[in-house]
Amino acid sequence: MEMKKYKLGEICKIYGRIGFRGYTTKDLVEKEDDGAITLSPTNIIDGELDYSNNTYLNWNKYYESPEIILEENNIVLVKTGSSLGKTALVRKLFHPTTLNPQFVVLKDIKANPVYFSYLIKSDYFQKNIAAIKVRSAIPTLSQEDLGSIKIFLPNREIQNKIGTILSAFDNKIALNRRMNAKLEAMAKQLYDYWFVQFDFPNENGKPYKASGGKMEYNEVLKREIPAGWEVKKLGSLFTTNRGVSYSTKTITGDKGIPMINLASFSPDGSYKIDGIKTYTGEYTNEKVLKPFDLVMCNTQQTAIDFSKDIIGKALLVPDIFDGDITSSHHVNTLKVQNEKLKFYLYRLFNTDYFHAYISHFASGTNIMGLDFAGVENYSAVIPSKEVLSKFADFTLNIEKKKSEIIRENKKLISLRDRLLPLLMNGQVEVR
């Protein structure tokens, strides 16, 4: 396959947020309607843009920098910090979007954008970035240096064919992620109907409270709850233990067993696939996790910010691993007496109400730690066994389906990544 040599700056234009037009937290807004998405490196997951946890910039600041307003088929690239080199193609815009100062955007690309985005992700290009970044406390890549990187491109026909092959993988992976997001939304909505509005199905299959189901005033909570339901302190319902204490040398490299850790938790309570570590040290049987075990994050490395907190967030360990799994000491495993109860607790722990409560039990300076007594002393409504059982069965089916989808995506990503260098180097012929 014949390749021609170019400089990156000859194939695209490179824009970044101009320094004096930078913004502060005062420029940020909470609601989507009040501003545009401003991307941060956390919006890039496995080389794709993820919009599940957005930050919004007010409209005035958004329009102040028109050169970095994103369009479809642009490519974003982190130019500074620990995430330097992370990149993603803007496949589709769901809301007006711009960049924070850590990014540059590649526009007016004179190549197939899908092919070009994978060229930017390639080991060859990333090694060039590593070689020219400014060596300082915060590694930085200038736009001039970036534009000078030499690249090699086949003719446009070959680019288009390779782009079509890679897009087939990416479209299926994206579809799977949307399916998982819908499943997650469905489970959250059911929790709200059943345990916030108390409209779980009654004996006739109708919404309990809306159909006149009996409610009783509870002195502890100072509000009404369904008749027959109890209020208990959570510490009476489970035991807990921390995960494994590790050293840097035991989590360096790809060998070892999967370890759930801080990076596995998202602020919305979902599991972060790319946050897993591998652990090569010793561990006991009590530190081994099983699929759908309930775990909670007990540490946070930043100050409390309600929109970005992970401390106190919970996960059900997905069924996507083969062999032993463990967790770090930043994670507590909750062993619930009634297995049906953990599915309810998982949703409870990830509500805004519980999170506002548990945040008061976090303390520290650079690293926040959770006083687990706050969890144990929380007085929670405990539904009837029948309702718990129905909710557990429904939730377990959703979690199993989500795990199947994650497994499928892992296989697709692995296959795509094995095929990628063969396509890019011309070792596999495309027709």
Give the helix/strand layout.
Layout: E1 4-7, H1 8-11, E2 13-16, E3 28-29, E4 35-39, E5 44-45, E6 48-49, E7 56-58, H2 59-64, E8 75-78, E9 87-89, E10 97-99, E11 103-107, H3 113-121, H4 123-132, H5 143-147, E12 150-153, H6 156-196, E13 215-218, E14 223-226, E15 230-233, E16 238-242, E17 257-260, E18 277-279, E19 294-297, E20 299-300, E21 314-316, E22 326-327, E23 331-336, H7 341-349, H8 352-358, E24 362-363, E25 368-370, H9 373-376, E26 379-382, H10 385-424
Parallel strand pairs: 4-10, 17-22
Antiparallel strand pairs: 1-12, 2-11, 3-7, 4-7, 5-6, 8-9, 8-11, 13-14, 15-26, 16-23, 17-18, 19-21, 19-23, 20-25, 24-25
Helix pairs in contact: 3-6, 6-10, 7-10
Question: Can you give keywords for this protein?
Answer:
single chain, 431 residues, alpha+beta, 4-stranded antiparallel β-sheet, 10 helices, 26 strands, 31% helix
